[in-house]
Design goal:
The protein is of the alpha+beta class. Strand 1 and strand 2 form a beta hairpin. It has two domains: 220 residues, Glucose Permease (Domain IIA); 98 residues, no CATH class. Strands 5, 6, 7, 8, 9, 10, 11, 12 and 13 form a nine-stranded antiparallel beta sheet that branches. The protein has a four-stranded antiparallel beta sheet with strand order 16-15-14-17, covered by helices on one side. A two-stranded antiparallel ribbon has the order 1-2. It has eight helices and 19 strands. 19% of the residues lie in helices and 30% in strands.
Length: 346
Amino acid sequence: MRSFAAAVLAIFSQASMTGHAAQNQALDLVLPTDNDAIFSGDGPGFYQYVERNYKGAKSTPWEGGQYGFVRDPTDTAGGLVYTRFHEGIDIRPLHRDANGDPLDEVRAIADGKVVHTNLVPGYSNYGRYVVIEHRWDGSNYYSLYGHLSSIAVQSGEMVKRGQRIAVMGYTGTGLNRERAHLHLELDLMFSRQFEAWYNTFFRSDPNQHGIYNGMNLAGLDVARLFLALRKNPALTIPEFVNDEEIFYKVALPKARHFDLLKLYPWMLAGGKRSEGSSWEVSFARSGVPLTIARSDRHVTQPELSYVKKGSIEYSYLTRDVVSGHENNAHLTNYGSQLMRLLVWPD
């Protein structure tokens, strides 16, 4: 018979192995509903359309349900641009009852922990929604399921890949029965100091969602990720993000808190031995942070250090984080506030 000490050691050893395995779990995702038309290239069959009125011409383009700059077309000197960014994807229903209400079951896209459930539709443009935390290779990522009619899980609950968590609906701003859909995101988090930052800048608008507020989550192109994983099941998030184009960079002052680096240490670019005077964070056009580098540039507040050259007003291209044209580009007031979140309290 093993000694008590040996038994305890065996338990801790097994727990350690289990934790290690969880951290290095493969990025094995499953679609959240029965609708799998994305894998056959059927865009209209997969994405819920948006209602558009552009220059008096009404249309219902399914492309508006995709991820990215797919909404609010605007004429500019550089041509037509879509200025409104869609953080996730809108998946249309396959099943409806006699009244036309959606019946589609919504499932977790991967193993994880439910960290937030919003039960009051009026608290968010997402309506009723659920956030699940996933841990891959030592970092946390967050799937968000919006516009739900009902929720079947509670905060703190552990869920398995493919487990039923909700039913599709049309709760939230601007939706009706005909446009019922599931809004799905897969997000990175900016900072665990979000609530203190938010309460400083948005005192008149109470935050009902803690650190899982949409302002604190940066959405990846989850549709492209699903397709990429079909081609390469061993793909990791850092490898996936590495394909994104750097659109702008921001220099940040060194601060006691820099959660982004703690949350996603894989973003740190190597090759520079000095500690540097500041951090330089590179962003995709979507606002997703891509890399973090040490910089010798001395700054006391966030400063734009690079932006891709172009003739179109930058506020249209960057979700109003950067403004101006060509050589007079600069962070907007909102952009400066958002960048301060990364080093809050600064």
